[in-house]
Amino acid sequence: MRHDSAIAASPAGTAGYDELASQLDGLLTGETDLVANLANAAALIYHSLPQLNWAGFYLMRGGTLVLGPFQGKPACVRIEVGKGVCGTAVARRESVLVPDVHAFPGHIACDSASESELVVPLIRNGEVLGVLDLDSPVLARFDARDQAGCETLVAVLLRHLSDAAV
Predict the structure, then answer these.
(1) What angle do CA 152, 134, 36 make, to 5 degrees?
(2) In the chain, what are the domains?
(3) Reported pTM
């Protein structure tokens, strides 16, 4: 299911994120369409990182997070700001890393197989545009390296979006 180039959950993971950021940059170069770039980013991340059961985006629409391009099982369509891990990341305007989603107050279980989650907000010019959401069926799958790596991926993505795209 995963490519041989999948980033291992090891100290080499940091170098793996650098390579993934380079791949994402190349994939998005020359394209500014929001849906196309989010779809390709979700697919690249899902097929490059091990032990994921969902990777995708929620976009701010009228003060609510609305499901965007993703890879994985069908997901919750709308999430209120401040609710669940995604809504909390928007409210805090910072990444939220949750080793055990069952211990997170107000967790929204779109997929009962998810055990851990990492959410990185997409913030441009002070405005939250949405979030990158990663779920794993493995407890404590994500760590500080994953958070920093995914924050870099979001920065690459944001560089490729036109101001009119969002």
Answers:
(1) 70
(2) 13-159 (3.30.450.40)
(3) 0.90
pLDDT tens sequence across 33-51: 899 999 999 999 999 999 9
Partnered with residue 66 across adjacent β-strands are: 59, 78
Give residue 65's identity as a one-letter amino acid code. Answer: L
Residue ranges for the chain with pLDDT beneath 50: 1-12
CB 154 within 8 A of CB 120: yes
From CA 119, how far away is CA 133, in angstroms rounded? Answer: 5
Task: Round to whole Å and give the CA distance between 143 and 127.
Answer: 26
Rounded CA-CA distance 70/122 in Å is 15
How many other β-carbons are positioned within 10 Å of the β-carbon of residue 5?
A: 11
Strand order in the sheet with 64-72: 78-80, 64-72, 54-61, 127-136, 116-124, 96-98
